[in-house]
Structures
1.
Amino acid sequence: MTFGVSGLLYKSNVLMYDHQTESLWLQVKRRAVTGPLTGTKLKVLPSSVTTWKKWRKRYPETKVLSFDTGYSRNYSRDPYEDYYRKSGGFFSSFFRAGPGEKEKELVAGIEIGDSSKAYPVELLRKKGKLTDNFSGNEVTINFNEETDQLSIKDSDGVEIPNVVVYWFVWKGIHADSSLYKEK
Amino acid sequence: MNRIFLAILMVCLIAGTAYGWDFEKHSIPVDQILSGGPPKDGIPALLTPRFATPAESGLEPEDRVIGFVSGGDARAYPMRIMSWHELVNDEVNGKPVLVSW
């Protein structure tokens, strides 16, 4: 199965589609939400967002996606640079950040059963290690400053897949989600 | 008059959004699916990614990448490419892997 960009958004979230059935998939949920495959989930594989310097140091033999993509684009700049700097999103007008919250703060979001919670990435980076309880679940979060690797585990040591997104994007999809705050 | 025009515009926008997609089965309210601007495939996903060595990569130390490792096969996907294509349909160790940004 292969995927393409539908050009459609749901609550500021990207909808991808698969070429085979043209079902729409909600990126942040990794789940088909319309079309024949509605309800099907993709398995999340651990990845990290880091700098080239840190990645290369850790994996000197790494392969790198080539700028020779077959498309002519100006890869010398990131087209979303302005968007990263702006405080609001394209469709963030329906979202109101709570006290002390920034709508475009990057968070690591997790789901356990029907509960969900988000942790500010900068706070995790600063603290390195954090344990938290929510809805009866104990989670341990480790942030490795050297590799930018973020790992969230439950009390049995099982990895809980996390998604790093803007807070307003996460909250748009997980209306009941709370944002972790330092006590 | 303005209000009528706005209503017609809204109908066009919604109809345009639904055009061509099969929404018979759905788990989200389809009237909240909006066009993000570019048309379908207006942002071209990569289907046959090519890879370079670190020396050939042309990356700067502070460039951001998405890193993924599977069974000793490490791959870096530069953000400067991900922002233009959003999706890379890759294969790692014989298994399909979708990189999404």
2.
Amino acid sequence: MNKSATSDWLLFLCFTVAVLAMPIWLKPFGADYPDLMQRFAIFGIFAIGFNILFGLTGYLSFGHAAFLGAGSYAALWSYKLLTMNVIPAVIFSIIIAGIFAFLIGFVSLRRSGIYFSILTLAFAQMSYNLAYSVLMPITNGETGLQLNLADPRILDRAAGIEATNSLPLPNIFGVATTGMPGFYFCAVILIIGFFIALRITRSPFGMMLKAIKSNQTRMAYTGFNTRPYLLWAFVISGMYAGLAGGLMAVTDPLAGAERMQWTASGEVVLMTILGGVGTLIGPVLGAALIKYFENIFSSFNKSELQEVFAFLPEGLADIMVSVSSMFVGKSWHLTLGLVFMIVVIFLPGGIMEGVRRMGRMFGIGKAPKEPLSVANTQGSQANG
Amino acid sequence: MDAILLQILNGLDKGAAYALIALGLTLVFGTLGVVNFAHGALFMLGAFCAVTFNLVLSSSTKVRDESVTLFEAYKEVPILETKFPNIGPVILDYSIPLSIIVAIPFMLMIGLLMERGLIRHFYKRPHADQILVTFGLAIVVQEIIKHYYGANPIPQAAPMAFAGSANLSAMLGIGEGIVYPWWRLIYLAFSLLIIAGVFAFLHLTTFGMVVRAGMQDREMVGMLGINIQRRFSIVFGLAAVVAGLAGVMYTPILPPDYHIGMDFLVLSFVVVVVGGMGSLGGAVLAGFLLGILQSFASMTEVKSILPGIDQIIIYLVAVVVLLVLPRGLMGRKGVMED
Amino acid sequence: MDNVVLHVADVHKSFAGLHALSDIDLTVREGETHAIIGPNGAGKSTLLNVCIGRLKPDSGHVVFDGENLTGKLPHQINQLGVVRVFQTPEIFPDLTILENVMVPILAKRDGSFKLNWFRRFSGEKSVRDKASEILSNLGLGNMLDYDASSLSRGDKRRLELAMGLSQEPRLLLLDEPTAGMARHDTNSTIELLKTIKATGMTNVIIEHDMHVVFSLADRISVLAGGKIICQGTPDEVKADPRVKEAYLGEEQV
């Protein structure tokens, strides 16, 4: 017992060090600039939260982007109405997303399996469509919600901080959250988020969620009311998504409806699966890898490819360039889709499963404890 | 009254597309037990089959432009027109319906390939895995199309003869001034024909009966020792062809782009769920119903009372149906339930 | 001893016009082991499902210790102390064997819902000790950290029993605890059930094996065609001609 607690603290410590030291060890990969590292952290938070729902309970939500978007809007309104300080913005984004998740979860969790997925998808699409039309006064439609010189910013003005002729910057008690301070702010929140997820996973509450994933019917006959367990998991994971959305507005004070589109929900599913569903580190890893390769692959263009293949004979080089151009630049989603398929087919446990398998090959680690499938949803269980 | 009639008509062609995609989705789900998120990609592939066919037919050469006499001018003329001056232009004009001839074998091949190469290995995996892997496939297919055809919609023309609108009031003696594009009428008729064909195939042939029995009770059919594997492939191929043809014929109504499949898929899934997972009749019914509802919701009269309703009506209906009728309009007990 | 714990009163249940249960009236007294026997399709499992809230009766009601169970949800019935041990093992396949037993103990301790997300599950020492003790008593003590899915069918049923016992139920409903077991296993299960009986726990047991029934039951109800045709002590039941009739061609009584 003490052993597992110690190893958890060790895991947490390693995680903290790795996150804070990102600017150092990411240098050789050319990924040490704040904007990208910040994206790692933000999407890491999103994926950690998503995993609390999908990884622990097996409920696959296709609508988490709605909470991401809600978080961004909430943060922006906090800037506009109250203050440019990011702390209240982040708190508001969590609260608003939590309320939103409670409402959607309350209804969606009446069904399970694919019906649940469709319900969450339907709600997210509704939010997305409404953000473009009826909710214009809140979302500013297609243009996206932006800051304005004339915004009230009650608290800032009360404190005598006036934006004179340029738009004010989001800040944390006066320090602008652009560049490295912005990254460290997100990194600290990622570490806190990871710690909470760790506690949840190891807690009795987390164990009940795992038991629900394993056999929900049995839980009821064991005396558990599964509904509040699922609803809390849903709300918590929605709050993480909202937090991620709020953090997006920390560096770039802008919120658009496209963050709510279902493709954004799909992205977080990809991240979680790629890294390893149900694992603690996996989702963060998946998020970072996808954002890293997105950055690399999408920046490639034809002339760079030609340089790469310049050593080949001319005809062959042309073929290689045209083939590989399918996988980079604007088409990098093709690579993503392929990698994702390969992972689902051959390595349902994601990268973390791969690491475990490697470990076992070299004789470290234990026998597999998780079933070899991405998820074990209710729909797949045969008992009535 | 006329306005209502017009709205119903307007909803029908979209509803027909939903119905066709949902039909294939539910067929695959009912028999193979697979949730196919790549089904929308099949619709999109069908549409691009038509685009490609048209592109090939209109490949052109430079020809001296006789109408310009002052200097030597050239113009692009499709080879087809220069080689076959009589029939060529007609073929070109009818390229969309003609592309069906190419689309059927092509979609069948794609369908079989998909089933053999991928879907087959996921029969026993959880539904979430199926959703995920087909979702990945859908992204891949979509990106390949985007790579070759670009991101912009590619407009396609209906044959000249059907380019205009039909004056339904004059033809049927109902209402006044109800005009409706010919091609949409054609699409409606075509869809009904395909739906009828699928139902006839399932109800009148032995093969179809086995498939239907399989939808009722999969284990049972397996125990009868019937070669399910081969039938599964064929069913999947059939679903692919239906989705593909729906896509081919829809091109003049909505210019296809690479994400048309996903757009329709999300809605079609909602349609399937509303109709009831595993119910073919339900899928068709819900397809038309939601198409019509959507068209009603976009009437200005309705929008003025309930702003934004046109944007969310389908999802709203889905939520209500799922909560009130967990099995959808015509779903059977025991399908995808815990 | 004569306190009635469970009273099934006038319960009717039909499926699509087919009467699965009609006019069921059954009382179980505190501390007794009450066996429900009957030929296949007599409605035994349906009766059990009505008791634990898996099925709603069309009419009539089930009263446990003065509380009406009809209309209550499965988890509420469990929280009252009515625990069912399933015939086909309904375990948590992805959890370890120890966790499988710790979870029901927590249901008993913490109630149907508790958001204790900051505690450590593995730090619940008393729960853990209790679970491993029960598992050791059932002969599963040496495989606590294995996945439950890796167990053999017989061991899964023992685990199932351990999960039921761990909740210290006031009424334990056992659904064919020895079905499909070899004679040797059956005998050891009988011994185990005897020790449970000795603790004074009230048991309702559905069983096919008459050997098991007559070694354990204080009273027996015979169910046939959805009706109770006979209720009494083992000797009374043995002597009843209607029972022989119902079992004709089924099994030797």
